[in-house]
Amino acid sequence: MLITNFRQAVRRSLAPALAAVLVGVSLTGTAAVGRAETGDPGAVTVGTLSVNHLEDALGIPTDPPVFSWHLEGPGRGIVQTARQVQVATSADGFDDPDVWDSGRVESSESVNVPYGGDQLEATTRHHWRVRVWDGDGTATPWSDPSSFETALPADATSARSWDAKWVGGPQDGVLGTEWSDYTLRIRTRNITEALGIVFYSDSGADNAYMWQLSARGEPSLRPHSRTNGSWALLDDVPVPDGALPGGFAAEHEIAIALADGRATTSIDGQVVDSRVVPLRSSGTIGFRTAQGESGDVDEVTVVRGGETLLHTDFSDGVNPFAIGSVEDGRLKVSGVVEDGVLTSEERALPLLRRDFGIDGPVASARLYSTALGVYRAEINGSRVGDHELAPGWTDYSQLVQYQVYDVTELLRQGENTIGAMLGTGWYAGHLAWVGQHRYGTDPAFLGRLEVTYEDGTTSVVTTDASWETAQGPVLDADILMGETYDARREMPGWSEPGSPGDWTPARVSTPPVGDLRAQTDPPVRVTEERPTEAVTTPADGVTVYDMVQNMVGWVRARLTGQPGDVVTIRHGEVLNPDGTLYTANLRTARATDTITLGADGTAEYSPTFTFHGFRYAEITGLDSPPTADDVTGVVVGTDNRATSTFDTSDPMLDRLHSNIVWGVRGNFLSVPTDTPARDERLGYSGDLNVIAETATFNHDAYAFLTKWLRDMRLRQAPNGALPGVAPGTEPGVGESNVSAGWGDAGVTVTHATWKQYGDARVIEDNWQMMVDLVGFWSSVAQDDIVPEGHGIGDWLNLDDATPNTLIATAYYAHDARLLSEMARATGRDREADEYRALFERVRAAYGDRFIAADGTIGSGSQAGYTMSIDMGLVPEDRLAAVGDQLVAAVEARDWHLSTGFLGTPHLLPALSAVGRDDVAYRLLLEKEYPSWLYEVTMGATTTWERWDSIRPDGSFQDPGMNSFNHYAYGAVGEWMYSSIGGIRATSPGYSTFDVAPRPGGGLTHASVSHDSPHGAVRSAWKERSDHELALDVTVPANTAALVHVPATGRHAVFEGGALAADAPGVRFVRMQGGAAVFEVGSGTYAFESHDVRGHIGKAADEATAFHQETAGLVSSGAVDGRAATRLRAEASALEHVVESGREHVFAGRDRAGLELATKALARVAGLRKSLERWADDGSVGEGDAEVLTASLDRTGAALSAASTLLLGVTVTLELTEPDIVPGSTAHLVAALVNGGSSRLTEPTLTLDLPAGWSAEPGTSPRTVRPGTSAVLPLTLSAGADEPVADGVTLDGVVTYRYGRATVTVPVTSVVDVVSPVEIVSVVAEPDVLEEPGDSTTAVVTIRNRRTAAPLTGVVELTGPDGWSLDPTTIPYDLAEGAETSLSTSVTSPDGAGAQAGTIEVTARYGDAGTPGERADLRITTAIESWDFETDGDAEGWEPTNHLDGFTVADGELRATSTGGDPVLSFPGPMSLDASAGATVEITMSSSTDGEGQIFWGTADQPGAAESRSARFGVGAGGPQVYRVTVPPQASPIVALRFDPLSTAGDVRIERIRVLR
């Protein structure tokens, strides 16, 4: 069985051949595409030198690097045939290089050329240059020298090896560690899962008591003790219902009285527990939560006797605890935090410094530095470098990156000072929703300053006990929460000698950290500044500044007020309808900077140790707000060089490209995050998996991605599983399971990086990681199919779920195929064969399991089709059927997409692979929800997380997960660049590539460029008319390209004003897919395609072929006597006339060309008749006559096409109805428009109809004058018993006469034959049976689609085994347009068998019983039901979050959602078989629109998780019945959670049922 990856087959199959051409060109310089036309031996030069993909790299590892360069020069076909690289430690040392001289090496490689010398010396600047030999064997001049510098020795991986120590500010103290015999009162509400109250705790909460308020199941108090970090459960005390009205979701006061070694606990004054607490007798207080736990705290009071030790109601916005955040006057506690105890009086972030001396002229100085946290270094009052948020995020327990700075110019003779500021960063600050201190608690700095003097001596300054510290003006800084800055605490000159201040010895520590390694990725930098474009005042004292672009970074603001004024800057991506800042979607991230103005009442402020995702900044706290000029947006991100441009005739499409680029720019910040705004910002592998090809086209991200792949390697589990995020939110390896499409990024991102940049080191570095991942898939697969339980599916699909087993198996196969390709590229031929065999095996199993004979795949989801096609998993004999099913799935959504994160990247490529670019363009350019351009119409400036992050009515999606800067759906960019622009690499690193644009969608021009490793690639096309297109192409030196010019034939294409096939450096290859394909070497090319030239050129070729064929027949004696003479003469005359016409057209003399073309058409007609006569009289053999006639027909068709265009004629054929009903008529109309200046006569329409069809022509005009049109109507009939069919092709011709010539225009129309009997509805009442053996009535409503004829037939019903239907066949007799309902009794099996089944309904028509429409009716039973019929009895359901007013009355469960994350939980006990799936049915009324979500827990995985949930829209009013599908589960359902309404509003739930 032949199976093809059709996305790649057409173009990428050419890669080996074209690569061979390029190599041949490079070695010989003699091929047509390979010879430089410079005329100047020195015209070719070498430039743009880089090492390890970095220019002038500072601090690269001492491992052998790779070198790259560009060739530049005029002319075409510049190639390299040999190279020479020199490396020296002196810029003047190239005469005798002391490091490496490669000598002349015969090679065309100019990208990723490996260093071949001895081991590089550490901490050394290396200078290098290169020259090459071109295609003529001429040496270029040497390039200008470039340089790179190596980092510390490879074994300098610890502070000890640096001869340095980690230093920091004093540790934060803890308030209340000496307290004893006190009473703690806490007011709580909205507890989800649990909230722990900590007391008698030591400073690190390693020894403490914790009373856990548990909302799991029946409310209870769960006392715990902790000894040396280990928790012990002391008891589980049920809380009486009377003591806890409304459960822990309602507001209650919890009091714990500690006296005489006993803890007495009460709730709202009622004692619920009293016990001895012997392990501790003093200590501080706090809170503790684990994953999924949260709660709100309104007030905390600690009293002892008559003394108040602590009281806070959080109204001042201050959080005295090392957990949670203060919002709206309450402490919101969540995340995984074990040490959330009281902190001391707020301590500012530390400044660090040390004085040192310089006693001689300095030749060079380097600072090697890093931090646990983030840092900024200064020397003598000047900032060191331009890095932001250094050293970036890694798993600090395994690896810490250090930076290298050239600080030579910052040093001076005599006294000097080095200093550093520290922030918590990713090391100790908040990470996602899990809290802070995930890697450590106290930031620290490590540094080594190496100074080399001009006399060759050196000195070293390192961090040690001699350093000092003081509190700086940054009171607090957190990546998620923001920065608090007090200008009154500024210390001018703090990093200069002699700085005054309260300096104390720095804290020296030995934290547990991983190896120190030089940073290999570009640093985070300020990359752009954006002015404020608009200022609004939505409320008194509130000013909002609009930067127009959703961006990542911060604002720089000039603030003027009174000394001590507190200014607040908040950040948001969008605005509320009233113009105020919308921040609900940030969740717990405060994204707020607070500034206290200094003594002069002014400040020019921008934060140092935080970043925000925002478009809008809100400033409050000043009587006179800043002007627009005072507030600037500062864009920050990893400084990956931009490598693309994109411009089309559609401004909205250009905006989409901009949104894609900005989405990646914002989220590529040290790690590739999912969103830069809310409390997440994690390096999600799934998001990067889908965007990698798009991102690498738009950005030079090699170094960035290889750094992240190292993060993935460090998190790989021992069983080979790769994680969903890297780095993790805690130290160490990740999870032991793989979420399909997420963990697979270890393979797909490696592959994309290699293909884009051509550097196979990325394969070598990650080989074992990839092998182990595929090994994991092999270990869990059963008969080569990965079972359920390995993923979260096509994330955020639009109610179009794809089975996880299908997705996981697809990725298993995909990974194996990519691994085979990468093995081959790195010389692992045995492994390449093995992984290819594995791919073939899994692909076969996939086809057998998921792909039906009719092309249906899996659940019929769009994602299932797109992934299967684009990953090459569809057998060739089923590809057309699968393609039809994909298009049908899109059409079923009214030509809209329904894919999520994993399906979307493959959607348009899959449509193109099955020849449906038209549908691909339709989806791309759709402006209504859901679509890419819908976001643009709603004002998006980055891509969104959800297709409707802003709904059509202007409301916002669920704030629990609604990012406005989420790049996954931007993966469509890859199709835009490779299809609209046509640029696609056919070998790694673009040494060969295609330029094959596919214009469509109404676009009239497009220009796309990409700065490849070899240089700039550009494709720019423009439609000059309906039949003329220009394509400009740029090919960089030392590469070759196949250029596909849309054309009617090779003669249609000119380049540089001459026939392209004859242009210098251009070689015609073939016609393919409606394009003329040309092979070119480097240079710039201006192609022009004109349809008339293509047609007349083809006609000339065919006429010549006809002449040659006739000459051969005549010479052989196969043609008799006078016929031979006449045939030869006529063939010669035809050739001459057509060739003359071609010459006129090519010269631009269209009118003369038209006259000759139509003259030739008349000759073709005459010759055709002569051939018929000669065949009849035997002068020409019958077979020979057929061959010659076919040749004439090809000539005539080309001449007709050319004549039609020259005359300005257009012809269309349309069916006036959308489809045809058997036994009825439809109307077909051909329209001939005469847009020229000549009179046309005798227009006719002829169709080739299927058997049993007929057509009656209408009236049409005899003459079509210039500027008028003719309508040629047909009434079309299909036989009464014609079977239903999609896409019946009706071929025909429209002919007309011009002069003596009859011009023929082929026309085609596609019609769907639809069933004359329509199934309007199929219902059962009831459709849920209560007991085995119960019956229901199925009602089938049908309609006769015929409007002028009756219809007879039968409806057949078929049930599963064991089900009884009576009757099973029901006849019908319908008048024209009539409708009727037919009923049958359905009885379920009377026993313990399956009590759910699907009734198949088929409506047949006509005497032959032709199958018409089909439908299914699902009848099921309830396996669990909650009816809320007893007042006050919630039947086990509990409100656990954001629900007020919870009660059961009058047959309804009632509650008020306060927004956020309202939760109803049913913890069990229950055990429901869902091995075949299930449906959760909710009958509910709501006061407002919103979104609901059902979670299910299973025996294997009992907790709530997004991967075991389904969302659905909730409409205002009701009651309405909502049904939510639960896919098949591997173990029984044991718990349910229902989030009824994402927005604030009232809900009334009448019933919840679980159906089979």
UniProtKB/TrEMBL annotation:
<dbReference type="InterPro" id="IPR008902">
    <property type="entry name" value="Rhamnosid_concanavalin"/>
</dbReference>
<dbReference type="Pfam" id="PF08531">
    <property type="entry name" value="Bac_rhamnosid_N"/>
</dbReference>
<dbReference type="InterPro" id="IPR016007">
    <property type="entry name" value="Alpha_rhamnosid"/>
</dbReference>
<dbReference type="GO" id="GO:0016787">
    <property type="term" value="F:hydrolase activity"/>
</dbReference>
<dbReference type="InterPro" id="IPR013783">
    <property type="entry name" value="Ig-like_fold"/>
</dbReference>
<feature type="region of interest" description="Disordered">
    <location>
        <begin position="494"/>
        <end position="534"/>
    </location>
</feature>
<dbReference type="InterPro" id="IPR018905">
    <property type="entry name" value="A-galactase_NEW3"/>
</dbReference>
<feature type="domain" description="Alpha-L-rhamnosidase concanavalin-like">
    <location>
        <begin position="539"/>
        <end position="636"/>
    </location>
</feature>
<keyword id="KW-0732">Signal</keyword>
<dbReference type="Pfam" id="PF10633">
    <property type="entry name" value="NPCBM_assoc"/>
</dbReference>
<feature type="domain" description="Alpha-galactosidase NEW3">
    <location>
        <begin position="1331"/>
        <end position="1405"/>
    </location>
</feature>
<feature type="domain" description="Alpha-L-rhamnosidase six-hairpin glycosidase">
    <location>
        <begin position="642"/>
        <end position="980"/>
    </location>
</feature>
<protein>
    <recommendedName>
        <fullName>alpha-L-rhamnosidase</fullName>
        <ecNumber>3.2.1.40</ecNumber>
    </recommendedName>
</protein>
<feature type="signal peptide">
    <location>
        <begin position="1"/>
        <end position="31"/>
    </location>
</feature>
<dbReference type="InterPro" id="IPR035396">
    <property type="entry name" value="Bac_rhamnosid6H"/>
</dbReference>
<dbReference type="InterPro" id="IPR008928">
    <property type="entry name" value="6-hairpin_glycosidase_sf"/>
</dbReference>
<dbReference type="Pfam" id="PF25788">
    <property type="entry name" value="Ig_Rha78A_N"/>
</dbReference>
<dbReference type="InterPro" id="IPR012341">
    <property type="entry name" value="6hp_glycosidase-like_sf"/>
</dbReference>
<keyword id="KW-0378">Hydrolase</keyword>
<dbReference type="Pfam" id="PF17390">
    <property type="entry name" value="Bac_rhamnosid_C"/>
</dbReference>
<dbReference type="Pfam" id="PF17389">
    <property type="entry name" value="Bac_rhamnosid6H"/>
</dbReference>
<dbReference type="InterPro" id="IPR013737">
    <property type="entry name" value="Bac_rhamnosid_N"/>
</dbReference>
<dbReference type="Pfam" id="PF05592">
    <property type="entry name" value="Bac_rhamnosid"/>
</dbReference>
<feature type="domain" description="Alpha-L-rhamnosidase C-terminal">
    <location>
        <begin position="982"/>
        <end position="1051"/>
    </location>
</feature>
<feature type="domain" description="Bacterial alpha-L-rhamnosidase N-terminal">
    <location>
        <begin position="362"/>
        <end position="528"/>
    </location>
</feature>
<dbReference type="InterPro" id="IPR035398">
    <property type="entry name" value="Bac_rhamnosid_C"/>
</dbReference>
